[in-house]
Design goal:
Structural class: alpha/beta
Distance between the termini: 55 Å
Number of strands: 8
Shape: globular
Helix content: 40-55%
Strand order of the largest sheet: 2-3-1-4-5
Strand content: 15-25%
Number of helices: 9
């Protein structure tokens, strides 16, 4: 199904245009309210989950990096599963950072320009903090224009004009679901599911999936290699959706070096 993703530093603007776009297109909506459902599904604290979507572990002291990454993987998995189901307008869930290389997904970044020096300074500070969060979470900068198909400067157009432009773009054939693009989205959903299962007990996990083949990359000390690889195979091997599993191990050079000086 077709998907429209929004991102913006201005949450009110993002919410307004996303809602209007969904109404015009007749699409379902998926936003930060979905976090409550995710928290219920995975038995998480909804308040802490919302905080985890805003703050990195270095600042958010009440949760460890390990748990933080697991909680984010719960969001990624559940959002991807929903995006497969319906025509959806999605915002407030950072999906633009983990839904990539899927051609029937239109990703839009809204920019509200301002001549007010203090507001401009504040907006840039927010952008830096958001980029820090995004890099820690998904190794991507939220402000990177390469992530988006469309960037709209709202200083020159009205919200209604923006909605009209976005809705017209969604009608382009290139943004219609094709077998290849739907399979790409399903592959990402499968990879997210496997990663989520592994992150319950493990760290340093990266997962790629293609047509039922799942490749897990992991890093650890050399002495932990056999145990970690065996654990990954045991956990992932119990999942029905995987047709073939590969586990690639890499030595954690930094930890090895640190241990050598002890």
């Amino acid at each position: 199904m077709s998907v429209l993703l929004f991102a913006s530093e201005d949450e009110k603007l993002e919410h307004k245009i996303a809602r209007k776009s969904a109404e015009k297109l007749g699409y379902q909506t998926l936003n930060a309210e979905f976090l409550n459902e995710i928290a219920q599904i995975h038995a998480l604290d909804p308040i802490k989950l919302k905080e985890a979507m805003q703050t990195t572990p270095s600042i958010f002291k009440r949760i460890s990096p390990k748990i933080w990454h697991y909680w984010l993987s719960c969001v990624e998995m559940e959002v991807l599963n929903r995006l497969i189901e319906d025509n959806i307008v999605c915002w407030g869930l950072e999906a633009h950072l983990y839904v990539v290389v899927v051609s029937h997904v239109l990703k839009v970044r809204l920019i509200e320009a301002s001549e007010d020096a203090s507001k401009l300074k504040s907006d840039r500070a927010k952008e830096r903090l958001r980029d820090k969060w995004a890099m820690t979470a998904f190794k991507r900068r939220s402000s990177d224009p390469k992530l988006y198909d469309m960037m709209l400067n709202m200083d020159q157009i009205t919200p209604d004009e923006a909605v009209s432009t976005i809705s017209s773009t969604m009608e382009y054939a290139r943004f219609k679901p094709m077998t290849y693009s739907m399979n790409n989205l399903k592959d990402r959903a499968l990879a997210a599911k496997v990663k989520n299962r592994l992150l319950k007990t493990l760290t340093d996990i990266r997962v790629h999936a293609q047509n039922g083949t799942v490749v897990v990359n992991t890093t650890s000390l050399k002495r932990e290699r056999k145990k970690k690889v065996a654990t990954i195979k045991e956990i992932a091997g119990q999942m029905d959706d995987i047709g073939y599993l590969e586990v690639h191990w890499n030595k954690d050079a930094l930890k090895e070096a640190a241990n050598s000086y002890r």
